[in-house]
Design goal:
The chain is of the alpha/beta class and 408 residues long. The chain contains 13 helices and 15 strands. The strands form four sheets. Strands 2-8-7-6-5-3-4 form a seven-stranded mixed sheet, with helices on both faces. Strands 9-10-15-12 form a four-stranded antiparallel sheet, covered by helices on one side. Helix 2 runs parallel beside helix 7 and helix 8 (264-285) runs parallel beside helix 12. It starts with 6 loop residues before the first strand and ends in a 14-residue tail after the last helix. Bound molecules: pyridoxal-5'-phosphate. Pyridoxal-5'-phosphate binds next to helix 3.
Length: 408
Protein backbone atom coordinates (compact mmCIF):
# COMPACT_ATOMS: atom_id res chain seq x y z
CA UNK A 1 0.00 0.00 0.00
CA UNK A 2 1.32 3.42 -0.88
CA UNK A 3 1.39 6.20 1.64
CA UNK A 4 0.32 9.75 0.83
CA UNK A 5 3.20 12.12 1.44
CA UNK A 6 4.18 14.03 3.42
CA UNK A 7 2.98 12.00 6.40
CA UNK A 8 1.70 14.44 9.03
CA UNK A 9 3.10 13.62 12.47
CA UNK A 10 2.90 17.10 13.99
CA UNK A 11 -0.50 16.94 15.67
CA UNK A 12 0.77 18.66 18.81
CA UNK A 13 1.29 21.78 16.67
CA UNK A 14 -2.16 21.62 15.14
CA UNK A 15 -4.68 19.05 13.94
CA UNK A 16 -6.75 18.93 10.77
CA UNK A 17 -10.41 19.83 11.16
CA UNK A 18 -12.62 16.74 11.47
CA UNK A 19 -15.05 16.77 8.50
CA UNK A 20 -17.89 15.99 10.92
CA UNK A 21 -17.00 19.14 12.83
CA UNK A 22 -16.90 21.19 9.64
CA UNK A 23 -20.34 19.94 8.68
CA UNK A 24 -21.76 21.11 12.01
CA UNK A 25 -20.15 24.52 11.57
CA UNK A 26 -21.17 25.30 7.99
CA UNK A 27 -24.77 26.51 8.51
CA UNK A 28 -23.53 29.05 11.04
CA UNK A 29 -21.44 30.81 8.40
CA UNK A 30 -24.46 31.39 6.17
CA UNK A 31 -28.17 30.90 7.07
CA UNK A 32 -27.67 30.87 10.81
CA UNK A 33 -25.48 33.94 11.01
CA UNK A 34 -27.12 35.59 14.04
CA UNK A 35 -25.37 37.28 16.94
CA UNK A 36 -25.75 35.04 20.00
CA UNK A 37 -26.25 38.15 22.11
CA UNK A 38 -29.29 39.34 20.11
CA UNK A 39 -32.24 38.56 22.34
CA UNK A 40 -35.07 40.07 20.28
CA UNK A 41 -35.33 37.83 17.20
CA UNK A 42 -34.98 34.30 15.94
CA UNK A 43 -31.56 34.88 14.33
CA UNK A 44 -30.10 35.64 17.73
CA UNK A 45 -32.00 32.82 19.46
CA UNK A 46 -30.77 30.29 16.94
CA UNK A 47 -27.15 31.35 17.45
CA UNK A 48 -27.69 31.48 21.20
CA UNK A 49 -29.08 27.94 21.22
CA UNK A 50 -26.05 26.70 19.27
CA UNK A 51 -23.73 28.32 21.80
CA UNK A 52 -25.68 26.79 24.69
CA UNK A 53 -25.42 23.37 23.10
CA UNK A 54 -21.65 23.76 22.64
CA UNK A 55 -21.26 24.78 26.28
CA UNK A 56 -23.04 21.57 27.27
CA UNK A 57 -20.89 19.42 24.97
CA UNK A 58 -17.67 20.94 26.33
CA UNK A 59 -18.78 20.87 29.97
CA UNK A 60 -19.80 17.23 29.49
CA UNK A 61 -16.30 16.25 28.42
CA UNK A 62 -14.57 17.73 31.48
CA UNK A 63 -17.12 17.24 34.27
CA UNK A 64 -18.14 20.91 34.41
CA UNK A 65 -21.47 22.71 34.16
CA UNK A 66 -22.23 24.80 31.04
CA UNK A 67 -21.99 28.24 32.67
CA UNK A 68 -18.40 27.45 33.70
CA UNK A 69 -17.30 27.47 30.05
CA UNK A 70 -15.84 30.82 28.95
CA UNK A 71 -15.07 31.16 25.25
CA UNK A 72 -11.81 32.76 24.16
CA UNK A 73 -9.75 32.97 20.97
CA UNK A 74 -7.54 30.03 21.94
CA UNK A 75 -5.48 28.53 24.72
CA UNK A 76 -3.00 31.41 24.58
CA UNK A 77 -5.74 33.82 25.56
CA UNK A 78 -7.15 31.41 28.14
CA UNK A 79 -3.70 31.13 29.74
CA UNK A 80 -3.36 34.93 29.76
CA UNK A 81 -6.72 35.38 31.52
CA UNK A 82 -5.94 32.57 33.97
CA UNK A 83 -2.71 34.22 35.07
CA UNK A 84 -3.24 37.97 34.66
CA UNK A 85 -6.98 37.96 35.34
CA UNK A 86 -6.69 35.79 38.44
CA UNK A 87 -3.68 37.50 39.96
CA UNK A 88 -5.38 40.87 39.49
CA UNK A 89 -8.79 39.82 40.83
CA UNK A 90 -7.29 38.19 43.93
CA UNK A 91 -4.55 40.74 44.57
CA UNK A 92 -5.76 41.32 48.12
CA UNK A 93 -5.00 37.65 48.91
CA UNK A 94 -1.37 37.89 47.91
CA UNK A 95 1.04 38.36 45.07
CA UNK A 96 2.72 35.00 44.58
CA UNK A 97 2.29 32.68 41.62
CA UNK A 98 3.79 29.20 41.15
CA UNK A 99 4.35 27.62 37.76
CA UNK A 100 6.80 25.22 36.08
CA UNK A 101 9.83 25.43 33.82
CA UNK A 102 8.33 23.37 31.00
CA UNK A 103 5.05 25.26 30.65
CA UNK A 104 3.93 26.68 27.31
CA UNK A 105 5.23 30.17 26.46
CA UNK A 106 1.71 31.56 26.93
CA UNK A 107 2.13 30.75 30.64
CA UNK A 108 5.82 31.56 31.03
CA UNK A 109 5.59 34.90 29.20
CA UNK A 110 2.47 35.90 31.15
CA UNK A 111 4.30 35.00 34.37
CA UNK A 112 7.30 37.06 33.27
CA UNK A 113 5.02 40.02 32.53
CA UNK A 114 3.47 39.74 35.99
CA UNK A 115 6.88 39.49 37.60
CA UNK A 116 7.98 42.65 35.83
CA UNK A 117 4.92 44.31 37.32
CA UNK A 118 5.94 43.44 40.86
CA UNK A 119 4.51 39.97 41.46
CA UNK A 120 6.56 37.16 42.90
CA UNK A 121 6.86 34.13 40.63
CA UNK A 122 8.25 30.71 41.49
CA UNK A 123 9.18 28.55 38.53
CA UNK A 124 9.49 24.93 39.64
CA UNK A 125 12.23 22.86 38.02
CA UNK A 126 11.54 19.42 36.56
CA UNK A 127 13.51 16.19 36.89
CA UNK A 128 15.22 14.50 33.90
CA UNK A 129 11.92 12.79 33.11
CA UNK A 130 10.13 16.12 32.91
CA UNK A 131 8.15 15.83 36.15
CA UNK A 132 7.83 18.38 38.93
CA UNK A 133 8.33 17.30 42.53
CA UNK A 134 5.05 17.68 44.48
CA UNK A 135 6.96 18.08 47.76
CA UNK A 136 8.92 20.95 46.28
CA UNK A 137 5.66 22.47 45.05
CA UNK A 138 4.17 22.30 48.53
CA UNK A 139 7.33 23.71 50.10
CA UNK A 140 7.22 26.72 47.80
CA UNK A 141 3.73 27.76 48.95
CA UNK A 142 3.63 30.81 51.21
CA UNK A 143 0.87 32.89 52.81
CA UNK A 144 1.04 35.08 49.73
CA UNK A 145 0.47 32.33 47.18
CA UNK A 146 -2.67 32.82 45.12
CA UNK A 147 -2.33 30.48 42.17
CA UNK A 148 -0.56 27.35 40.95
CA UNK A 149 -0.46 26.96 37.17
CA UNK A 150 0.82 23.62 35.90
CA UNK A 151 -0.04 21.90 32.65
CA UNK A 152 -1.71 18.54 32.15
CA UNK A 153 0.42 17.30 29.24
CA UNK A 154 3.54 18.89 27.83
CA UNK A 155 3.34 19.83 24.16
CA UNK A 156 6.95 18.88 23.36
CA UNK A 157 7.42 15.65 25.30
CA UNK A 158 3.86 14.64 26.20
CA UNK A 159 4.90 14.30 29.87
CA UNK A 160 1.89 14.27 32.22
CA UNK A 161 2.07 16.18 35.47
CA UNK A 162 0.54 14.56 38.58
CA UNK A 163 -2.47 16.87 38.41
CA UNK A 164 -4.63 15.10 41.00
CA UNK A 165 -1.86 15.44 43.55
CA UNK A 166 -1.32 19.07 42.57
CA UNK A 167 -5.06 19.65 42.97
CA UNK A 168 -4.99 18.14 46.46
CA UNK A 169 -2.06 20.34 47.48
CA UNK A 170 -3.83 23.45 46.16
CA UNK A 171 -7.01 22.54 47.99
CA UNK A 172 -5.20 21.83 51.26
CA UNK A 173 -3.64 25.30 51.18
CA UNK A 174 -6.71 27.14 49.87
CA UNK A 175 -4.94 28.11 46.64
CA UNK A 176 -6.35 28.18 43.12
CA UNK A 177 -5.12 25.63 40.57
CA UNK A 178 -5.07 26.47 36.86
CA UNK A 179 -4.19 23.70 34.43
CA UNK A 180 -3.28 24.23 30.78
CA UNK A 181 -5.04 21.10 29.53
CA UNK A 182 -4.66 21.94 25.82
CA UNK A 183 -2.71 18.81 24.91
CA UNK A 184 -4.54 16.47 27.25
CA UNK A 185 -8.09 16.93 25.98
CA UNK A 186 -9.30 13.81 24.19
CA UNK A 187 -6.31 11.74 25.34
CA UNK A 188 -6.52 12.00 29.12
CA UNK A 189 -9.81 11.76 31.02
CA UNK A 190 -10.45 15.10 32.63
CA UNK A 191 -12.72 15.61 35.60
CA UNK A 192 -12.16 19.14 36.83
CA UNK A 193 -13.70 18.56 40.24
CA UNK A 194 -12.04 15.23 40.94
CA UNK A 195 -8.72 16.70 39.82
CA UNK A 196 -9.15 19.81 41.98
CA UNK A 197 -8.85 22.20 39.05
CA UNK A 198 -10.33 25.68 39.38
CA UNK A 199 -9.44 26.80 35.88
CA UNK A 200 -8.38 24.97 32.73
CA UNK A 201 -7.34 26.10 29.25
CA UNK A 202 -8.36 24.29 26.07
CA UNK A 203 -7.92 24.96 22.36
CA UNK A 204 -10.08 23.99 19.37
CA UNK A 205 -7.34 23.36 16.83
CA UNK A 206 -5.51 20.78 18.97
CA UNK A 207 -8.60 18.54 19.08
CA UNK A 208 -9.70 18.49 15.41
CA UNK A 209 -11.74 21.66 15.82
CA UNK A 210 -11.14 25.04 14.18
CA UNK A 211 -8.33 27.50 14.89
CA UNK A 212 -9.12 30.72 16.71
CA UNK A 213 -11.40 29.26 19.37
CA UNK A 214 -10.53 28.26 22.90
CA UNK A 215 -12.07 27.74 26.29
CA UNK A 216 -11.27 28.78 29.80
CA UNK A 217 -13.12 26.69 32.35
CA UNK A 218 -13.77 28.81 35.44
CA UNK A 219 -15.29 27.07 38.45
CA UNK A 220 -18.59 28.55 39.58
CA UNK A 221 -18.98 27.03 43.05
CA UNK A 222 -16.92 25.55 45.93
CA UNK A 223 -15.35 28.00 45.44
CA UNK A 224 -16.78 30.41 42.91
CA UNK A 225 -13.83 31.73 40.93
CA UNK A 226 -13.58 35.08 39.20
CA UNK A 227 -11.06 36.72 36.92
CA UNK A 228 -10.57 40.33 35.91
CA UNK A 229 -11.05 40.66 32.16
CA UNK A 230 -8.05 41.05 29.89
CA UNK A 231 -10.32 42.22 27.05
CA UNK A 232 -12.95 44.78 28.08
CA UNK A 233 -16.22 45.49 26.34
CA UNK A 234 -19.84 44.38 26.33
CA UNK A 235 -19.63 42.10 29.37
CA UNK A 236 -19.99 38.78 27.57
CA UNK A 237 -18.97 35.51 29.19
CA UNK A 238 -19.71 36.39 32.84
CA UNK A 239 -17.83 39.64 32.28
CA UNK A 240 -14.53 37.80 31.93
CA UNK A 241 -14.21 38.00 28.15
CA UNK A 242 -16.04 40.56 26.07
CA UNK A 243 -16.56 40.45 22.33
CA UNK A 244 -19.22 39.07 19.99
CA UNK A 245 -19.13 35.31 20.29
CA UNK A 246 -17.40 33.36 17.52
CA UNK A 247 -20.46 31.21 16.91
CA UNK A 248 -19.01 29.04 14.11
CA UNK A 249 -15.87 28.41 16.14
CA UNK A 250 -17.90 27.67 19.25
CA UNK A 251 -20.11 25.20 17.39
CA UNK A 252 -16.92 23.54 16.08
CA UNK A 253 -15.36 23.42 19.55
CA UNK A 254 -18.51 21.81 20.94
CA UNK A 255 -18.70 19.20 18.18
CA UNK A 256 -14.97 18.46 18.52
CA UNK A 257 -15.36 17.86 22.27
CA UNK A 258 -18.35 15.63 21.78
CA UNK A 259 -16.42 13.43 19.35
CA UNK A 260 -13.43 13.31 21.72
CA UNK A 261 -15.69 12.06 24.48
CA UNK A 262 -17.57 9.55 22.35
CA UNK A 263 -14.49 7.99 20.75
CA UNK A 264 -12.17 8.35 23.71
CA UNK A 265 -11.47 4.71 24.59
CA UNK A 266 -10.80 3.43 21.06
CA UNK A 267 -8.79 6.49 20.18
CA UNK A 268 -6.48 6.22 23.17
CA UNK A 269 -5.92 2.52 22.56
CA UNK A 270 -5.26 3.05 18.86
CA UNK A 271 -2.88 5.97 19.37
CA UNK A 272 -0.90 4.14 22.04
CA UNK A 273 -0.53 1.13 19.76
CA UNK A 274 0.74 3.25 16.90
CA UNK A 275 3.05 5.34 19.06
CA UNK A 276 4.57 2.23 20.61
CA UNK A 277 4.95 0.67 17.18
CA UNK A 278 6.83 3.77 16.02
CA UNK A 279 9.14 3.81 19.03
CA UNK A 280 9.82 0.11 18.92
CA UNK A 281 10.33 0.11 15.16
CA UNK A 282 12.97 2.81 15.40
CA UNK A 283 14.64 1.74 18.64
CA UNK A 284 14.88 -1.93 17.69
CA UNK A 285 17.03 -0.91 14.74
CA UNK A 286 18.98 1.97 16.25
CA UNK A 287 20.89 1.84 19.53
CA UNK A 288 21.49 5.59 19.51
CA UNK A 289 17.89 6.63 20.12
CA UNK A 290 16.37 7.62 23.47
CA UNK A 291 12.89 8.62 24.57
CA UNK A 292 12.67 12.11 26.08
CA UNK A 293 10.34 12.35 29.04
CA UNK A 294 8.79 9.85 31.42
CA UNK A 295 8.14 6.61 29.56
CA UNK A 296 4.70 5.87 31.03
CA UNK A 297 3.52 9.22 32.41
CA UNK A 298 3.21 10.54 28.88
CA UNK A 299 0.58 11.28 26.24
CA UNK A 300 -0.29 8.21 24.19
CA UNK A 301 0.23 10.14 20.96
CA UNK A 302 3.66 11.67 21.48
CA UNK A 303 7.18 10.33 21.04
CA UNK A 304 9.98 12.84 21.48
CA UNK A 305 13.17 11.01 20.52
CA UNK A 306 16.84 11.98 20.68
CA UNK A 307 19.07 10.72 17.90
CA UNK A 308 22.64 10.76 19.09
CA UNK A 309 25.47 12.08 16.87
CA UNK A 310 23.25 13.95 14.41
CA UNK A 311 21.33 17.22 14.50
CA UNK A 312 17.56 16.96 14.51
CA UNK A 313 17.49 19.70 11.86
CA UNK A 314 19.73 17.78 9.48
CA UNK A 315 17.61 14.70 9.89
CA UNK A 316 14.42 16.70 9.42
CA UNK A 317 15.84 18.36 6.34
CA UNK A 318 16.37 14.97 4.77
CA UNK A 319 12.86 13.89 5.70
CA UNK A 320 10.94 17.09 5.05
CA UNK A 321 9.33 16.07 1.75
CA UNK A 322 8.13 12.80 3.26
CA UNK A 323 7.41 13.40 6.94
CA UNK A 324 6.12 16.48 8.78
CA UNK A 325 7.54 16.53 12.32
CA UNK A 326 9.13 19.13 14.59
CA UNK A 327 12.53 19.27 16.20
CA UNK A 328 13.89 20.01 19.63
CA UNK A 329 15.23 23.37 18.53
CA UNK A 330 13.53 26.59 17.68
CA UNK A 331 15.14 28.27 14.70
CA UNK A 332 15.82 31.91 15.38
CA UNK A 333 17.56 34.17 12.94
CA UNK A 334 20.85 34.19 14.81
CA UNK A 335 21.14 30.73 16.24
CA UNK A 336 19.62 27.34 16.73
CA UNK A 337 18.30 27.49 20.24
CA UNK A 338 17.88 24.17 21.93
CA UNK A 339 14.39 23.52 23.30
CA UNK A 340 13.88 25.13 26.71
CA UNK A 341 11.72 22.16 27.68
CA UNK A 342 14.45 19.61 27.04
CA UNK A 343 17.04 21.89 28.64
CA UNK A 344 14.87 22.21 31.75
CA UNK A 345 14.97 18.40 31.89
CA UNK A 346 18.73 18.68 32.18
CA UNK A 347 19.43 17.51 28.67
CA UNK A 348 22.74 18.76 27.28
CA UNK A 349 22.24 21.18 24.36
CA UNK A 350 23.78 18.77 21.84
CA UNK A 351 21.12 16.17 22.61
CA UNK A 352 18.32 18.74 22.46
CA UNK A 353 19.61 19.60 19.02
CA UNK A 354 19.23 15.99 18.03
CA UNK A 355 15.62 15.60 19.15
CA UNK A 356 12.56 15.10 17.02
CA UNK A 357 8.95 15.16 18.16
CA UNK A 358 6.59 12.74 16.49
CA UNK A 359 2.96 13.47 17.38
CA UNK A 360 0.27 11.17 16.03
CA UNK A 361 -3.38 11.84 15.40
CA UNK A 362 -6.84 10.65 14.49
CA UNK A 363 -6.03 9.62 10.92
CA UNK A 364 -2.52 8.26 11.41
CA UNK A 365 -2.31 4.72 10.01
CA UNK A 366 -0.12 1.70 10.58
CA UNK A 367 1.16 1.98 6.99
CA UNK A 368 2.24 5.55 7.66
CA UNK A 369 4.04 4.52 10.84
CA UNK A 370 5.89 1.71 9.05
CA UNK A 371 6.86 4.07 6.26
CA UNK A 372 8.14 6.64 8.78
CA UNK A 373 10.18 4.00 10.63
CA UNK A 374 11.85 3.00 7.38
CA UNK A 375 12.65 6.54 6.27
CA UNK A 376 13.94 7.62 9.69
CA UNK A 377 16.19 4.59 10.09
CA UNK A 378 17.63 4.98 6.57
CA UNK A 379 18.31 8.70 6.80
CA UNK A 380 19.57 8.55 10.36
CA UNK A 381 22.01 5.77 9.52
CA UNK A 382 23.37 7.76 6.58
CA UNK A 383 23.83 10.92 8.63
CA UNK A 384 25.35 9.06 11.55
CA UNK A 385 27.86 7.30 9.34
CA UNK A 386 28.93 10.71 7.96
CA UNK A 387 29.15 12.22 11.43
CA UNK A 388 32.62 13.01 12.79
CA UNK A 389 31.11 12.62 16.26
CA UNK A 390 30.18 9.05 15.54
CA UNK A 391 33.69 8.45 14.21
CA UNK A 392 35.12 9.85 17.44
CA UNK A 393 32.77 7.83 19.60
CA UNK A 394 33.68 4.67 17.74
CA UNK A 395 37.34 5.43 18.49
CA UNK A 396 36.44 5.71 22.16
CA UNK A 397 36.70 9.50 22.56
CA UNK A 398 34.53 10.81 25.38
CA UNK A 399 32.22 13.27 23.64
CA UNK A 400 31.31 15.06 26.87
CA UNK A 401 34.81 16.53 26.87
CA UNK A 402 34.35 18.10 23.42
CA UNK A 403 33.53 21.81 23.18
CA UNK A 404 30.45 22.61 21.10
CA UNK A 405 29.73 25.51 18.85
CA UNK A 406 26.58 25.84 16.83
CA UNK A 407 26.42 27.80 13.63
CA UNK A 408 23.49 28.32 11.41
C1 LIG B 1 -0.99 24.93 21.41
C2 LIG B 1 -0.87 25.19 22.87
C3 LIG B 1 -1.23 26.43 23.42
C4 LIG B 1 -1.69 27.59 22.57
O1 LIG B 1 -2.95 27.34 22.02
P1 LIG B 1 -3.56 28.31 20.91
O2 LIG B 1 -5.00 27.91 20.87
O3 LIG B 1 -2.84 27.99 19.66
O4 LIG B 1 -3.37 29.70 21.36
C5 LIG B 1 -1.13 26.59 24.78
N1 LIG B 1 -0.69 25.59 25.58
C6 LIG B 1 -0.34 24.39 25.09
C7 LIG B 1 0.12 23.32 26.02
C8 LIG B 1 -0.41 24.16 23.72
O5 LIG B 1 -0.03 22.97 23.25
Amino acid sequence: MTVKKPVYLDHNATTPLDPRVLEMMLPYFTDKFGNAASRSHSFGWEAGDAVDKAREQIAGLIGAVPKEIIFTSGATESDNIALKGIMEYYHSRGNHLITGATEHKAILDSAKYLEKNGLRVTILPVNPEGLIDPDQLEASITDDTVLISLMLANNETGVLHPVEEIGRIAEKHGILFHCDATQGVGKVRIDVRKMGMHLISMSGHKIYGPKGIGVLYVRSRDPKVNARPVIHGGGHERGMRSGTLNVTGIVGMGAACEICGREFDEEVLRLRGLRDRLQKGIMDQLDEVRINGHVTERLVSTANLSFEYVEGESLMLRLKDDIAVSSGSACTSASLEPSYVLQAMGQPPELSHSSIRFSLGRWTTEEEIDYVIGRVVTEYTRLRDESPLYEMAKKGIDLTTVEWTHEH
